[in-house]
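Notes from the 1:1 (GR / supervisor)

We went over the backlog. Supervisor wanted to see one worked example end to end before approving the batch request, so GR pasted a single chain during the call. The sequence is below; no edits were made to it. Supervisor asked that the structure be written out right there so they could see what the output format looks like.
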Amino acid sequence: MRRLLSLHAWLVFAFLYLPIVVIVALSFNQSRFGVRFTGFTFDWYLRLFSNERILEYLTNTLIVAVVSTLVSTILGTLLAVGLVRYRFRWQSALRYLLYVPVVVPDVVMGISLLLLFDVVRDAIGWPRLSLFTIILAHISFQISYATLVVRARLMLLDPVLEEAAQDLGATPWRTFREVTLPLIMPGVISGALLAFSLSLDDFVVTFFTAGPGSTTLPLYIYSSVKLGISPEIHALSTLLVGTTILVLLLGNLFWRKRA
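Structure output shown during the call:
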């Protein structure tokens, strides 16, 4: 039985990660066409970094990911504190609403945001589809993920620690800054890393809310694949995977140090 479970685990991991391994291997393949490995090369990475358009799309992607992650993490942390530490009307309904962006299909999310931006633009003439609307769209679903992660961490925190700080004369803001925030920081960092990863590779929502001059790397990869997969796409995909893994490793290292 144990061997069957081990075999099943290896098959699942192979199904999940073998395609990624193939892409990484092909990014170093000399052959421009096909999957036959003819030699090792870094040429596709050199061509990738010499392509000004790709560098522009990379800049757009990082701007969207960093700004939306910062905003959603701050708002999500404050929302989590409000949901856990305070009681107010419709609190239960608000908790359930947090799961809507998580379970709603990305297509529905993208179309609804596009319609919202169209209605607002018709009413006040702003905003036009651009990087700004992409950032707003990403924040709209990142907040839920950040809030849920921080809320889970905050629920494990004993409120007696905060009450003791206030009994010693600390104001609510000082209690949050010097007691609550340091203790929930692993959850805040985890929520930020999750939000950053979701923004970095989002395609569907970005596709519906992007305007002229606001192309991101996922949009570029999709448009390039329709014309044929090139080794530059393999190299670009490898860099995206590597960036995501690096972010997760840094988060894990931070978590270990905090522990």
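Supervisor's comment: The two ends are 36 Å apart (CA to CA).
Batch request approved.
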